[in-house]
Amino acid sequence: MPDVYNWQIGRTMTYPYPEAHPHRQFVAVFNINRCIGCQTCTGACKATWTFSRGQEYMWWNNVETKPYGSYPQHWDVKVLKLLDEAHQAAGIKPRWDRSQVSEQAPYGVYNGLTLTEAAGPNDVVLGYLPTDAEWRSPNFYEDTSTAYKGGAFGLSQDGAALPEHQAWFFYLMRICNHCTYPTCLAACPRKAIYKREEDGIVLIDQERCRGYRKCVEACPYKKSMYRGTTQVSEKCVGCYPRVEGDDPLSDGVPMETRCMAVCPGKIRLNGLVEVAEDGSWVEAPQHPLYYLVRIAQVALPLYPQFGTEPNIYYIPPRWAPRPYLRQMFGPGVDQAIERYIAPSRELLAVLQLFRTTQKMIFRFEIEEGPLVREVEVNGKVWQMYNDTVIGFDAKGREAVRLSVVEPLHERPMERLNSI
Ligand code: SF4
Ligand code: SF4
Ligand code: SF4
Fold it and tell me: Going by CA atoms, what residue is nearest to atom 2 of ligand 2?
């Protein structure tokens, strides 16, 4: 197998195809701290793409309650177990080497096996096929927290306090990661799966697919799904007509996807980043997604050790136990939470951009405002400025303008009672 470079694990790894990168990559950042678990995203995707016969149990976007919930059931526990067994069989103790952090390896180097490296002699990818029953209950364990160990009936008398809650849960919102090295694509014997050059969206050619379900088995995130009525596999299409700017509302510029655009929690920011020929992101400090992922490093990939280089990034929840989060988002968790808790002036401004326009934002500018607050956070002075952030669309036009402090509008006296 050829060697390809995966910057999320800080090293080359084996993959069935040589490196070939799109010009731009579909990327999103999800802020777990703000999700209210309303499932509006889930409903929007279903109403748009999976409302037909044979798609009843198909949720391209789903929101599960961690640590117990998962769709299909126990997907991550099962994949982690398979990987653990492969490491034990190979006599390897997987470790992240943080001493090798660099521009090309921002989280350090992962010294362990990825899913293509851990595959058996007859497989391309280490994976498993969920049973039908595992797909049927997408929201098992909704809002179920871990038990508080000290109190009667598992209840705490003291309530919850940061930095880590003793009884905890959080929502994990998931779509296809439109991975740089998709294992669904790697495992397809029909070569029916492809990654688009223009935006890196991963699609299944419905004509070529014969429903062998190798992609379902090989995707560790279980985001490729089989449809019994058509006998082919389907997956999240990244709402490509909106990304192409063909949606009637789009005004000719790329728009955020349906699941992103409806989010009432304002937790999602979606866009396209420029990719160089070697697969690295072209330096763009004024691009909000480049800024969040590569400069501020507050948003992290989900299970980077799987080796697919996923392109959906998460701001980890500040109240959950750190070892659990490190396993899930890699070793960048502590720094990401520290930066999110006391954001820099620039980060605070960029965080305002989430879910404020349906247009994808390609560049931001900040106009400085006055100091409005000074408090102590974790023993250090933290200052808040009422800066204004401006987001520009693909054509360089102003798409949105927001201040850090939300403006207060007073209803005039003569309209006090009107709605
Ligand atoms: S998340 Fe799964 S289905 Fe989506 S591109 Fe990655 S491997 Fe393929
Ligand atoms: S990007 Fe579009 S197709 Fe994919 S999960 Fe979101 S709404 Fe569904
Ligand atoms: S719509 Fe937004 S807030 Fe609601 S569940 Fe989805 S990601 Fe969370």
Answer: 239
For the CA of 175, the nearest ligand: 2
Q: Whose CA is nearest to atom 4 of ligand 3?
A: 38
pLDDT recorded at residue 161: 83
- For 236-293, write each residue's pLDDT tens digit: 999 999 999 987 888 899 999 999 999 999 999 999 999 999 999 999 999 999 999 9
* Order of all β-strands in the sheet with 398-403: 363-367, 388-392, 398-403
In single-letter form, the type of residue at position 275 comes to: V
The token duo for 189 is 């014997």
Q: Which residues on neighbouring strands pair with residue 284, listed in sequence order?
A: none
Q: How far is CA 365 from the centre of its chain?
A: 24
Find the length of the chain: 419
Rg of the chain, C-alpha, whole Å: 22
Single-letter amino acid code for the residue at 269: L
**Rounded Cα gap, residues 320 and 301, in angstroms:** 17
Q: Residue 285, exposed/middle/buried by CB under 10 A (0-12, 13-18, 19+)?
A: exposed
pLDDT tens, position by position, 201-234 = 999 999 999 999 999 999 999 999 999 999 999 9
- Residue 366 one-letter amino acid: I
Helix residue spans in 119-172 (DSSP H): 132-135
Rounded to the nearest whole angstrom, what is the distance from the C-alpha of residue 243 to the centroid of ligand 3?
Answer: 20
Q: Per-residue pLDDT tens for 38-56?
A: 999 999 999 999 999 999 9
- Identify the helix (H) or strand (E) that includes residue 214: helix 214-218
Angle of helix 322-329 versus helix 333-341 axis, rounded to 10? 110
Helix (H, G, I), strand (E, B) or coil at 108: coil
**C-alpha to C-alpha distance for 279 and 281, rounded to whole angstroms:** 7
